[in-house]
Structure formats: structure tokens, C-alpha cells
Amino acid sequence: MDFDEKHGVLVDAVATDSPKIAVNAKPTAAIIGAGPAGLMAAQRLAEGGCAVTIFERKAAPARKFLMAGRGGLNLTHTTAADAALAKYGEAAQHLSAALEKFTPDDMRAWAHGLSQGTFVGTSGRVFPKTLKASPLLRAWLRHLGYFDVSLRLKHRWTGWDDTGRLTFTTEDANGQEQTSNTFVADITVLAMGGASWPNLGSDGRWADILKARGVGVVPFAPSNAALCISWSDQLKSKFAGTPVKNIAITSGETGAVGEAVITSQGLEGGVCYALNPVVRDELRSAASATLHLDLKPDMSEDVIAERLARPRGSQAQTNHIRKATGLSAPAIALLREPGRGALPHGASEVAALIKSLPLKCTALSGLDRAISSAGGVSFSAVGADYMLKDRPGVFVAGEMLDWEAPTGGYLLQATFATAIAASDAALDRVKATLKIA
Ligand SMILES: Cc1cc2nc3c(=O)[nH]c(=O)nc-3n(C[C@H](O)[C@H](O)[C@H](O)COP(=O)(O)OP(=O)(O)OC[C@H]3O[C@@H](n4cnc5c(N)ncnc54)[C@H](O)[C@@H]3O)c2cc1C
């Protein structure tokens, strides 16, 4: 595809493959949002014979996808299907068919089809061999360029006019929004993402447009967000930015094992993200949620106590704990937080603290830096095919829908799977409506 500087549009995507249905009956599809869900819907619909126009409010496609690639793009996972489905909590029932249809192996095959090799990391997570999103995105856009796909950048979708045409604002050279363009298509796929990292495009403003039309939208909340914990100045000044490896965190019955990073605001990292739903629930009715850190999950409290009870001679207590347990300096600093700098004296008291260090989480960090968002278009507003019940021909895909999942490749897997389910259903519908074989 070429970039049309004058119009801020990537165009030129005339089909070079023979369309699979008659050209004179070519159905049209509008995709709103050029994130992974929108691009996958575009691929599926274009390969199925539609003339596809993608509208994207930012000046470039898939900015969040590119950001996701900065820390090593975790495309999918190798978790067994049942365990993977459980990661989606209550939304699992609405995602299971889509996730069964588009599996992690299909995700890898898709990437390989774009000549992007993948590998399984030690954690069972799947990454592109380049680890980045940009080569994959470039190959993907190149692939779309072989089909009848055009991409209109700097087009913000604003709803429908009285005749049912899609409406958009565009931007002038100074970034000011200009009044509307309209567009009509046989089918529409809404793929505008959730509401985290709004500066990358998905600002969730679509929610008001849909709510005004009577579509149920569950309020957004940060997901895969850092835990806000009020640390002592000493911990912050010495250890902000430092990882604490191999820890377990629990909140009530829910727990996770992994690594966290101490920040000036609290703790972040996969092990914290896994607890987001339960912490969010607790914070609805209380000023803080109590979490417990196990700083030595592989060692029993008895063994730790026995080691700490050995004579320490002239060693400082910190050194003694470090040598007896192998705890790192930041982990030992965390042990000092409840006592405002002081450690308990007895071996069994220290062992108990190492195994169950209480932390008060006062909030989840905001949507502006959360990896994803909970909330979105309610599953009660769409059918099993992800078509809006009150707006036939309009489908919803990706993080716009009301599901959440921990990091680990589950986000992109469900984003792609819902995009494929929605666009395949859209294709069936348009073929039936236009009576195309
Ligand atoms: C830092 C970070 C790291 C991540 N790492 C991973 C990872 O390793 N693995 C993983 O599985 N997931 C990861 N994710 C999550 C993943 O990126 C998202 O789940 C995924 O991008 C969601 O895709 P989507 O297409 O539904 O929405 P988005 O990617 O948000 O795309 C939506 C698009 O719609 C556009 N849009 C919004 N409103 C309008 C409008 N009104 N008109 C026109 N266009 C509009 C937006 O500009 C955007 O381009 C990460 C996220 C972040 C922020």
C-alpha cells in the first residue's frame, strides 16, 4: 500500500488475487479501527471477496500492537485449552466457540504464513522470532495490499447519520477535527479497542456513541494494571525499578507466582496483573485490598525458621537472612515495610513474614498505563456471532468487547479469535443477503 500524503490515506490496495466471488457482486465492508482486531477482520473479509475500507483515527495503524512489541510481542501461548479458557473468567462462555475455532496453533500458522517465524519461550509463551511487532505488521500490511483493502487514516468514527451511513471526522494539517465524511458499506466491523493507553488510539470514546444508541456498554476499568501501594521513602529511593523474582502473591483464594517490579507507586508485573480482577472487586467495597507476598515460595516456613535459628555470630541481621534464605536485597527491604524499617527479632517471626508479608493495595493504576481494560460492549448486546442485536450488519471484535484476561498471550489470542468469528459471520451474512454463492 502507498501513503497518499495529501489525503492522509493509505490506498492503492487493488485486488491482485482473483476474488472468490463475482466482481459485479462484490460486497463492501467497513472496518472501524486498524488495531489487530480490525486488521484481522479486514484480512478475513478481503480474502473472502469483500472490498474493504478500514478507518483509523490515528495517523498510523496498530500503534498499540507496535507498543506491545516493545517488551517482546507475546503473540499467544501453549497453555492447554481448558486452562487457557479459564483465564477469561466469566467471559469464557462467550469466547469459547471463537477460541476453539482460532487456536494458538492457528495463530502461529498465521504468523508463519506471513513468513514470520515464532518460538516458544521457557514460560510456554509464544513470540515472533524477531520478538518485535513491526516486521510482522509490515508483512501483514503487505499481504493486505494484495487484496481490495484501503486504509483511511485520521478518520475518527462518530456514529451513524439519519440514513444509516457511517459518519467520521477527519483532521486538518493542524490536527483540528473537521466535520464529517460519510460512508456506506454492506457490513461493518467495529474494532476500536478498549480504553487503556488512550494516546495510542483506543480512547474508548465510542462507548458514549453506542450507549446513546441503546447498546449496553460495561464501564471500563484498568486491567493488567500495577498495584498501588504506599511504600516508605527508603524503599522507593533505593529500590524503585528493581525486580523481585520468584514470588507468590495471594489475595484471598486467588494467587499467582512470578516476578514483580518495585515502582515508586507500588508493584507491577505479570504476577500483579493476575490479581487485578479480585483486587478490583475488593476495592469496590473497601479502601484497600490486603495482599500477601510469599517471598520464598519454594521453601517451607519451617525450613526457613530452622535456617534463621542457626547462630548468626557477629553478622548483621540482613546478612544473616540473605545467607540463610537466599533472599535478594529488595526482597529483604520489603520485609522491613510493615515495621517501618525494623525487622522482627525471632527466627520464626521473620520466617512467618517471609512466607506471608501483608501489603495494602489502595488502587489499581490508571487506564492511561494499564496494558488492557476490562469492560466494553456487553455480551448481552451481541449475538453469538458478535453482531449487535439492535443493529443488523454491525459486528464487534477485539478488546471492544467486555472481556479481560491476564498477560501471557491471552489478549491477542482472543482479539484475533473474536475478529475471525465476527468477520466470518459478517461474510456469511453479506453473502446470504446479497444472495452470493
Ligand atoms: C504496553 C502493552 C503491551 C502489551 N503486550 C501484549 C502482549 O505481549 N501480548 C498480548 O497478547 N497483548 C498485549 N497487549 C494488549 C494488546 O496490544 C491488545 O489487547 C490489542 O492491541 C487489542 O487489539 P484491538 O484491535 O482490539 O484494539 P487496539 O489495538 O486498541 O486497536 C483499536 C484501534 O481502533 C482505533 N480507534 C479507536 N477509536 C476509533 C474511532 N472512533 N474511529 C476510528 N478508529 C478508532 C484506535 O486508534 C486503534 O488503532 C499489550 C498492550 C500494551 C498497552
List the helices and strands and how they pair.
Layout: E1 2-4, E2 9-11, E3 28-32, H1 36-47, E4 51-55, H2 63-68, E5 76-77, H3 81-86, H4 92-101, H5 104-113, E6 118-120, E7 125-128, H6 134-144, E8 149-152, E9 155-160, E10 166-171, E11 177-183, E12 187-190, H7 206-212, E13 217-223, E14 227-229, H8 233-239, E15 243-251, E16 254-262, E17 266-268, H9 270-273, H10 276-285, E18 289-294, H11 301-308, H12 317-325, H13 329-335, H14 347-355, E19 357-364, E20 372-377, E21 394-396, H15 410-433
Helix pairs in contact: 1-6, 1-15, 4-15, 11-14
Bound molecules: flavin-adenine dinucleotide.
How would you describe this structure in keywords?
437 residues; alpha+beta; FAD/NAD(P)-binding domain; 2 domains; 7-stranded mixed beta sheet; 6-stranded antiparallel β-barrel; 32% helix; 24% strand; disordered N terminus; binds flavin-adenine dinucleotide
